[in-house]
Amino acid sequence: MTPLMADPQKKSPARRPTDKGLEAIRGIAMTFVALSHVLYLDLLTPDLNFPRWLRSIEGGHAGVLVFFVLSGYVLGWTNSRTFSREAARDYLRRRLIRLAPIYLLAVAITTAVMWVTGLWAPLRVIVGSVFCLQNFNGYFGFSLNPPLVNNPLWSLNYEILYYGLFLILWRFEPASKWVFGPALLAATLSWFAPRVMPLFIGSYAAGWLFWAAGWWLSRRPQLDRSMAARAPIATWVLLIFASHQISGATRILNALGLYSNDAGMVSIGDLGILPGLLLLVSALGGRQLTGKRWIELLAWTICVLPLAGIICTGRLLNNPAWLTGLLAVLMAGGLRAFSSERWLRPFAWLGGISYAFYVLHFPLLYLVQDMPIPRTTVEGFLVRLFIWIGLILGLSWLLERRFQPWIKARILVGRRPGF
Is 216 in contact with 179 (CB distance < 8 Å)? Predict the structure, then answer.
């Protein structure tokens, strides 16, 4: 079987390596997020009440955490040369060129959608979003939420922080205990004692555990690609989805009497998704994963143990997400021997435009919602859905495949290619 991963030895030295397997994970994560906002939030037709089971087919928060792990992995992988001031400046310049043009355009489109829909945000929110300061958990009591019509921008604020912290990892190469220990402590304190540890710091710390896990994986030894190609990719994806549906780690903590009223946008309760993510990224990235069998056991346990408790107490049908999670676990088990990667290829295309898709899909949902199309019928929903899919895929492709390369070539190379 031919693996999806491109050989980094054959890449041009002027470009970062492209790994189709990792791009496919991005595409899957973006699909999770899109399903959450189209079905769970029902932004296209809010007057049409979807069945609860249909709304449960989503994985938005898990998708964001997938992006965190991939971000850390890719930056660690593509910045493996020795640290120097020149290399750091080049890294920052390339990050700025990669992110800023599309991001600022997304903020402009978000502002335009506010004007069209009348869903205005305070000026401080708009200005804060321009400088990527938006944060649902605020700053010591100062509220600076992202705009209503583009709530997903919250995670970009986290990414920017982690890009800065990466310079410390790159420069000093600290031991793992210093990379993960303080973050785990801060995230744990925000769960148990939010008055002691501000939620925004604890949430940053919990998100960092995912981002740094990706960076850690990028430093693991490379495996033979034929070995990586035999991994049960579909099983790992389904376990990530199931863990999101079941909220396995949170339910285990709650069963032990360890509750949290508000642990922030990312919390230690989200760590149940991490074992499946480590298995997935290490497999498609072709990295050696120490303690792989134990990590796999943990990934299954975090899903199966809470489900067992839910079933034994007769509560399975109380929440459609639990039933969806059970079906995902059963499918994961049934596909354990399935190792084909061909099904990932369409997701790799979507992963290649996922950044523009992510920062633009939410305001476009609000824009299509405002169109004079029936709001209470299935037919109206389907018409809106097809319009939105066409808009977001077309605009994302244009920005990622035409606009971004044009900007990059113009600034980094100094030439002026045709748009």
Answer: yes
